[in-house]
Every structure is written in C-alpha cells, then in structure tokens.
Write a structure and sequence with these properties.
Blueprint lengths: L1 H29 L5 E3 L1 E3 L8 E2 L3 H8 L7 E5 L4 E5 L5 E3 L5 E5 L27 H6 L27 E6 L12 E2 L8 H7 L5 E4 L5 E4 L14 E7 L1 E7 L4 E2 L3 E4 L9 H14 L5 E5 L3 E4 L17 E2 L3 H5 L2 E8 L42 H9 L32 E12 L6 H16 L19 E7 L2 E9 L9 H7 L2 H13 L7 E7 L3 E6 L11 H66 L13 H17 L1
Antiparallel strand pairs: 1-7, 2-6, 3-5, 4-5, 4-7, 8-12, 9-11, 10-11, 10-12, 13-19, 14-18, 15-17, 16-17, 16-19, 20-22, 20-23, 20-24, 21-22
Helix pairs in contact: 8-10
Length: 650
C-alpha cells in the first residue's frame, strides 16, 4: 500500500514540477536582465537559514526578510532556497536547475560587491595556499572570472555599450591575425558593427572578398602576401588593474605572439599590443610579456588556464621566463552600470540548427537521382530522410519550385575562371627605407583606395557593387615600387584582360593613389621626387581556386565501392579455388588408400588360407615335418605308404 502511494505521489508530482519550471523561466524572462542567472551557485551561504519553497519568486521574497541576505540560490524541481551575503562568490556549475539572483531586481538591489569596484589584493597575494590568497583580499575572496560582468538569465554575458578601439589598420596596425572564425551569416560591410554588439568578439577582419572574420586573433603582425581590407581590435567595457605581474610567470597562459620576425623595434610597442590582446578579451585576467619568450595571455577557449584562486604554485618568480618578464598585469573586466545593455539582442532567423543559407552542395544531385519540387524546406528535408544514402540536401528557395529534372541547375562557378594580375608602377616611392609600421600605413591607404575604386565611376562615388575586390601587395623595384593586385577577370570566363584594363586606365585611379600616399605623411627620405603613378598593366591566368570541378562520372563516384567489390570477389574466388583443390587432393588420397587396402586384404587372405591348410594337415595326424624345402604333407604321406609297401614285399 505504501509503495502504491509513493508511485501515485510521483505521478502527481511530474506535472507540478513541469509547471513549476515553466513558471520560474517566465519569471526570469519578465525580470530585468542581470537579476537572475542560471547555471551558477555561491561558494558559501548564510548558515541555518535555508528553506524549501515552491517557486523562484517566493525564494526571492524570502531573501528580503533574512538578515544579511543580498543574493540567493534556488534549486528548481527540488524547491531548495539558500541565502548568501554580499561576500559570496558566484561559481559556475554544470546544472541548469541552479539559479542565483538578487534580493530585488532594481539598481540598488543589483549593486556589485566592492571587489568588483574598489578592492585590490594586499601584499600576501598570491599566497602559498588558496586560503592565504583569499585572505589577502579585504573582503576575504578573490573575484571569480566574469563575476563582475552582467549576465542574462541563461548565463550569457550582456552587451556593454562602452566599446573602445584598441588597434586599427587605419592607424598602422597590420591586423593580419590568424585563428579567426569566418562569420558566414555576417556581411563584411557589417562585420565591425556586429563585433561591437557582442562582448565575446575581440577583433574583426574584413577581407577583400567582403567576408567577415572574428575572434581573439594571434600573430597579427607578419603574414606574407596577405593584408585585410579592414581590421580592428576592440575592448568591451572597462578594465581595472588589480596587480602588477612584472618579474613573474603565470602558469596556464597561452602565447599570443612573439618577435621572431623582428617586427617590433622596441619592447614598448610589443608590450602595448600584448596588453591590448588581453584587454580585448573580457575573459582574460592575466597577461605577461618577456622579450625572449613573447606575449602570453589567458585564453579561456583553451582546455586549461591559471587556477582559481591563484597561488604561488602557478605564480612563479624562480624561472627564466620570470627573470625575462618586463611587463604584465592581473586585470578585471567590468561594464559600468550606465552602459549595460539590458535588452536581449535579436538573433538572426535560422531555418534550423542544422541548416545554413547561402550555400549549396556540389554536385547538387546524388547518383541516379534528380531535382524535385517541394513546398518547403522541411518537406525537402523529410524527403531526404526517407531516401537511402541521403545525408545532406540543398533547397533553391523555401516555398519555391526547384528546377525541373530535365533542366540543369545553374553552376556555382563558370565553366572557366581566369584571374587578372594588375601591376601599377609607383615611381620615386622607396618602401624599403620605411619602417614596418610606416610601410603598413602606406600600404593600407593605397590598398583601401585601390580596392574601393569604382570601375567606370568618379572617385568621389561611395562604395557599391562595382567595387574592385582584389588582393594587393606592395614591393620594391628599381626607381620606386610596384603595386600588384590579383582579382577575377571581367568577364570571368574570358582570358582577355581588355575589358578590365580599359576600366582601370582612367585618371581617377592615379589621383586616388597619389592622394593615398600623400595622406600617409611619409618622411622626406621615402620619396626621391614627386610620386608618379604609372599606367596599369593587366595579364590573366587560370584561377587556382575558382576553377570548377568536372561533374563526377559513374566510375569517379563509385570507384570505392567497385574496388571493395573487386577485392571481395578476388578473396571469395581464391577461397573457392582453394576449397576445390583441397577436395581434389582428398579424393586422390582416398583412391590411393583404397588400393593399398585391397592389396593388404589379399595378402591377409592368403596367409589365413595357408594357416587353415596347415591346420588341417596337423589334424589329420601326419605329425611329420616336411624334410627339405617345399615338401607338403601330402608328399610325406605318399612316401610313407611307399615305404610300407616295400617293407611288406621284403
């Protein structure tokens, strides 16, 4: 009976818990962003004050009546409510059912603790143990990473309206960062604005092909034969320096860059860029720079980092790196209250978590299949799900008819593709005499003017669909420099450069290049005379990347299966032949053994006959041994009867 009541209680509790969770989520969403955060807990609570309640809202109301309660933790489903004071530290956990929040959701109730605004560690930080490191802080706790950054109810960091530009290609920063991620849903023209809206975006690049790349970015200074069209490194919010790390090595940092290429002429420039790397990542707390080892920063995207709290086991002063470390900081990122964006960003519309717009598989059809029509992409997806060997699909346009099966689809690239190489002499400009930053300024200015040049339009016209998208490089020649650009020919399927050459041979392009060089404020020794822009020369060659691939034939598509079938057939045939040979050898052995047995049986029969005959002779009572060789018992009897007759006659 008790067991039945238990099962009945559990059955009745399931819809109650589901309703409770929906109520909690709705309450969090209706509250100001930053008041509640899911997936966190506190490291300590007010003792003997926890209660059980039925909702997140009731837990917050109870906190308002508990002495010293500033924040609380609520465990959904179980209804556990725990209360914490202002010194409790938020710690992330792997459970979405744990929710932390403030006693009230107004500005006064959501005020950050002093360790997020004024506190700095004392001389005992870092200590030998975690307890000693925490004791060095006035509040008794080292702040956790991102503790002072406002978060939405699901734990995601909120955007901060305070955004600063740390490095810019317009100011001489090369911006040749590697390790970035292409944002395929973001147009290159909106790359910078998109990065400003997301606090997790540290830097952005816009390439000459109008693609957008974002991320932390490392080794941003030397990258041969490549230059972004635009690039910036941003800082979201403000930074507070908590401790100087000069002469220390922090275990768990990752290399941002080094000076092996000799880009930096003095350590101060390298220190500034190293600091900017950490300042641009709101999850970075530590950075150090040593001339012989390079720039090392905390990278939260990696699998490990400095421990929390920081102790002397991870903050070393007795290493070669520590002896070479000339700069470093322990910092804290925060967003001033007036700059917190408490409005959730509208996410771009997605077809599905597994679908992406603007792409198509090539070849478009599987073997022995053809294009069909569908009313929606979901219907097309279900059709793929029911088709054998179908793993991916492409839809021409949701809600529109796909091309008929007898109409070939438009190819992604032309049948032939040619790349144009444009060379423009710049007489009297000596780029070799310039330092790397100064040359970078000139190159960026010329690259911007060249690639933004509108074919067949005036120089004052803004950027548009006719902008020249090219990869540009600047190299020295006798008597000056030469600007080389690589772009797709016009028309792309033609090897004739006449059309593109005619569009480039206009006075506006030469005046643009002169304006870009004069605006760079070059030193006098860089120009041996007035800048003269030569006539551009255009040549073409086959594009190494854009050339289309031939449609696969039957053999090119199915050769792995044919090869496997051939191997299986060979193995099966070999096994079959081997079995036949074994059966034939067995038959041969049986024939030989049969003959041997027949001979053996015949000899045995002869021996037994002789024995029986000899037995019969003994039974007849001859009792004589045959004298001589080959005398049988019958001969012995005949001789005996002859002797008897002769004896009788005598």
């Amino acid at each position: 009976m008790a067991r039945r009541l238990l099962f009945l209680g559990l059955a009745l509790q399931v819809p109650l818990l589901q309703a409770q969770t929906s109520e909690d989520v709705d309450f969090m969403r209706s509250s100001p962003l930053g008041c509640f955060v899911r997936g966190f807990k506190f490291d300590r609570y007010i003792p003997n004050k926890n209660i059980n309640t039925t909702s997140l809202k009731l837990c917050q109301q109870h906190c308002q009546y508990v002495d010293g309660c500033v924040k609380f933790s609520y465990r959904a489903f179980w209804g556990e409510c725990w209360f914490a004071d202002i010194n409790a530290v938020e710690v992330p956990v792997e459970s979405p059912y744990l929710i932390v929040g403030y006693r009230t959701c107004d500005t006064q109730g959501m005020q950050r603790p002093a360790r997020c605004s004024t506190e700095t560690p004392g001389n005992g930080f870092p200590g030998q143990t975690a307890e000693a490191s925490n004791a060095a802080w006035p509040g008794g706790k080292q702040p956790y990473s991102l503790e002072c950054w406002p978060k939405s109810w699901d734990g995601a960091p909120l955007p901060c309206k305070e955004v600063s530009v740390l490095d810019d290609t317009k100011n001489g920063w090369p911006g040749k960062c590697v390790g970035l991620v292409e944002m395929k849903q973001v147009n290159g023209s909106n790359c910078g604005e998109n990065c400003r809206q997301h606090p997790g975006c540290q830097s952005w690049q816009k390439t000459v092909y109008n693609s957008c790349w974002q991320g932390l970015g490392k080794d941003c200074f030397v990258r041969h034969n490549w230059m972004p069209k635009e690039a910036q490194r941003l800082q979201h919010g403000s930074v507070r320096v908590l401790k100087d790390l000069t002469g220390m090595q922090i275990v768990g940092l990752w290399k941002g860059f080094d000076n092996i290429e000799g880009f930096f002429q003095n350590a101060q420039d390298a220190i500034a860029f190293c600091k900017h790397m950490c300042y641009s990542d709101f999850r970075c707390q530590y950075w150090t720079y040593a001339p012989n080892y390079g720039c090392w920063i905390e990278d939260a995207s990696q699998e490990y980092g400095p421990p929390f709290p920081l102790t002397l086991d991870a903050a070393r002063r007795d290493t070669m790196f520590a002896a070479d470390c000339v700069a470093g900081e322990y910092i804290q990122h925060f967003c001033p209250e007036g700059f917190v964006n408490r409005i959730e960003l509208e996410q771009p519309a997605n077809l599905s978590d597994c679908a992406e717009k603007g792409f198509r598989y090539e070849p478009p059809d599987m073997f022995l299949t053809h294009r069909t029509s569908a009313d929606s992409w979901e219907q097309c997806r279900m059709r793929c799900k029911l088709t054998v060997y179908c793993h991916e699909l492409s839809v021409a346009a949701p809600g529109a008819d796909a091309p008929a099966k007898d109409q070939p689809g438009l190819p992604l690239v032309p049948q032939t593709a040619h790349m144009a190489e444009i060379q423009m002499p710049l007489h009297n400009l000596d780029v070799v005499s310039l330092s790397e930053p100064a040359a970078g300024i000139v190159f960026n200015a010329q690259c911007e003017k060249f690639t933004s040049f509108k074919h067949g339009a005036s120089a004052e016209a803004g950027p548009g669909p006719n902008d020249l998208k090219a990869q540009v490089k600047l190299s020295p020649i006798a008597g000056g420099s030469i600007l080389t650009a690589f772009t797709l020919n016009e028309p792309i399927e033609s090897p004739d450069p006449t059309v593109l050459e005619r569009k480039l041979k206009v006075p506006a392009l030469a005046s643009n290049m002169k304006a870009a060089t004069s605006g760079a404020a070059l030193p006098s020794y860089a120009l041996s005379g007035p800048l003269l822009v030569g006539e551009p020369h255009v040549g073409t060659k086959d594009h190494p990347l854009k050339a289309p691939q031939q449609q696969p034939s039957f053999f090119s598509q199915w050769w792995p299966l044919l090869a496997v079938l051939g191997i299986v057939a060979c193995i099966g045939g070999g096994i079959y032949i081997h079995r036949l040979s074994e059966m034939q050898s067995r038959d041969d052995k049986r024939v030989v053994l049969g003959g041997r047995r027949a001979v053996h049986d015949s000899s045995l029969q002869n021996h037994s006959t002789s024995f029986c005959y000899f037995g019969q002779t003994l039974a007849r009572g001859a009792g004589l041994r045959a004298a001589g060789r080959g005398i049988s018992a019958q001969d012995s009897d005949m001789s005996m009867s002859l002797k008897d007759r002769m004896h009788t006659a005598s």
